[in-house]
């Protein structure tokens, strides 16, 4: 007997949904994309036609009222995440919400509480942590091959500064590089170290041309034991997408650390005592893996790799980073 699949509804026609999450979910073992909604019905119909989605709705409420939908993916602008996560939970839908899960940790706590009350699952859409490379890197770290960890450095930058209508450049809507790409190296370091940072110091460039959101930020997160994450993130800089873990005896380099090269293998490199080796990782679709982990948690009750509690902890770090950048101070978390 064929196992039932999770029927996904997509709340909005954002680029990340069309480009990556919808195709990845359609390729997953546990899910199917059953419906999509937009406040502009013609946009929903056009997107449904382009991506072969059976049903298109002209309002978000209509999608939430569809009893055949099990789970909702929310790629809306950041300031709408809390509202529509809570509404989806109240409609009995499980929720995968795009990062950052909210505008602050308090919002994330409200969202988790609403999902817990409704008996539905909540996860933040950090696809990169589902890629097997990260578990493999953690195994290298735990093996002791590169010695004791002394630090991690991550960078995620791109340049879209000329696109002035972008929601990322709207302060009210939760714009800025820390929200958009800084969250990636921060979540990666928390995962690899299996610890929470104790303090944050961040310096940022707030651009008057872009509604005073942080278009570039450079930060230091203090982890226990004298270990630090140094990171930079930006939306007005040349493109970078890398992570490095430095140990006393060697280091790990991860090219294409957060956004992978579609349909290509994404390897990482380990260097010990001057000898550099490539660790080969077969091609996988990390968006499919994300959908499957969430789907199996619903269908089979298997544990979520990252649940709402993890999202709250990540937002506490982002809160501290933003406070540090705006007030030019070190912030204890």
SS elements, strand count:
15
The profile of the biggest β sheet is: 9 strands, mixed
Q: What structural class is derived from the secondary structure elements? A: alpha/beta
Poorly predicted runs are: none
Number of helices: 9
Backbone shape: globular
β-strand amount = 25-35%
CATH fold topology of the largest domain: Dihydrodipicolinate Reductase, domain 2
Arrangement of strands in the largest sheet: 14-13-12-11-7-10-9-8-15
- Architecture (CATH level 2) name of the largest domain: 2-Layer Sandwich
* The CATH homology group name of the largest domain: Dihydrodipicolinate Reductase, domain 2
Cα-to-Cα separation, first versus last residue: 50 Å
- List the helices and strands in order: EHEHEHEHEHEHEHEEEEEEEHHE
Radius of gyration (CA) equals 20 Å
Share in helix: 25-40%
């Amino acid at each position: 007997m064929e196992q039932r699949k999770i029927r996904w509804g997509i709340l909005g026609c954002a680029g990340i949904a069309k480009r990556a999450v919808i195709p990845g979910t359609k390729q997953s073992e546990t899910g199917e994309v059953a419906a999509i909604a937009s406040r502009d019905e013609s946009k929903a119909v056009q997107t449904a036609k382009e991506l072969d989605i059976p049903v298109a709705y002209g309002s978000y409420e209509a999608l939430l009222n569809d009893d055949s939908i099990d789970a909702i993916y929310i790629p809306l602008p950041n300031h709408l995440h809390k509202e529509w996560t809570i509404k989806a939970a109240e409609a009995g839908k499980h929720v995968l919400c795009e990062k950052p899960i909210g505008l602050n940790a308090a919002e994330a706590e409200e969202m988790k509480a609403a999902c817990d009350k409704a008996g539905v699952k909540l996860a933040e859409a950090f696809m990169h942590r589902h890629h097997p490379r990260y578990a493999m890197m953690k195994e290298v770290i735990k093996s002791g091959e590169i010695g004791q960890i002394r630090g991690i450095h991550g960078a995620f930058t791109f340049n879209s500064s000329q696109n002035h209508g972008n929601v990322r450049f709207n302060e009210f809507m939760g714009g800025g590089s820390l929200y958009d790409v800084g969250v990636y190296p921060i979540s990666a370091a928390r995962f690899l170290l299996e610890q929470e940072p104790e303090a944050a110091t961040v310096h940022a460039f707030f651009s008057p041309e872009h509604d005073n959101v942080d278009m570039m930020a450079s930060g230091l997160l203090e982890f226990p034991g004298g270990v630090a994450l140094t990171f930079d993130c930006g939306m007005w800089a040349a493109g970078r997408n890398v992570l490095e873990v430095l140990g006393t005896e060697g280091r790990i380099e991860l090219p294409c650390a957060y956004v992978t090269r579609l349909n290509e293998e994404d390897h990482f490199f380990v260097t010990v005592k001057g000898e550099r080796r490539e660790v080969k990782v077969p091609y996988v679709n990390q968006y499919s893996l994300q959908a499957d982990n969430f789907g199996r948690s619903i269908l089979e009750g298997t544990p979520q790799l990252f649940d709402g509690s993890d999202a709250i902890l990540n937002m506490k770090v982002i809160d501290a980073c933003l406070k540090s950048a705006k007030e030019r101070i070190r912030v204890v978390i």
